[in-house]
Amino acid sequence: MQKFLISYFSLLISLLVIDLVWLMIIAKNMYRSDMGDLMASEPRLGAALAFYLLYALGATIFVVVPALTKQSWLHALQFGALFGFFCYMTYDLTNLAIIRNFPEKLAYIDIAWGALVTAICCCLAYGITNWFDKS
């Protein structure tokens, strides 16, 4: 259980930090200009918190734990990218399908970001968990 909690919290914290840098600094203006009136003036923090808690749980269960079992950082990288791709793709393609004028460019950038950030965070969680396990 301790190994799982280390994996989960290292993934959660790295995801929060990296994604917040992306959202608040790097891509802030892109989201604001591309989404226009679709973007809420203030984020719904409860929904955001639920997303991060559940997304990190899913990535831990379906990516990091199997990578630790296989002792393969490459598994964490590859399947982290796939997990992020499929999760973000589901969200963004649904938005493209049902929300009028949802920005197509933003959807594709977001899908790529989801794959990248999840791959990085799964690798970090894998490495941190292994480091604690060997200590």
Describe it.
The chain has one domain (2-134). The protein contains five helices and no strands. The relative contact order is 0.18. The chain has helices at 2-26, 28-35, 45-70, 73-98, 104-134. The mean pLDDT is 94. It is mainly alpha-helical and 135 residues long.
> Which stretches are low in confidence, meaning pLDDT under 50 for 5 or more residues running?
none
Give the SSE order as H and E letters.
Answer: HHHHH
Question: Helical segment tally?
Answer: 5
The helical percent reads over 70%
In angstroms, what separates the terminal alpha carbons?
16 Å
Number of strands: 0
Q: Please state the overall shape, judged from the principal axes of the Cα atoms.
A: elongated
Average residue pLDDT: 94
Structural class: mainly alpha
Characterize the largest beta sheet: strand count, sense, and whether it forms a barrel.
none
Can you tell me the number of structural domains?
Answer: 1
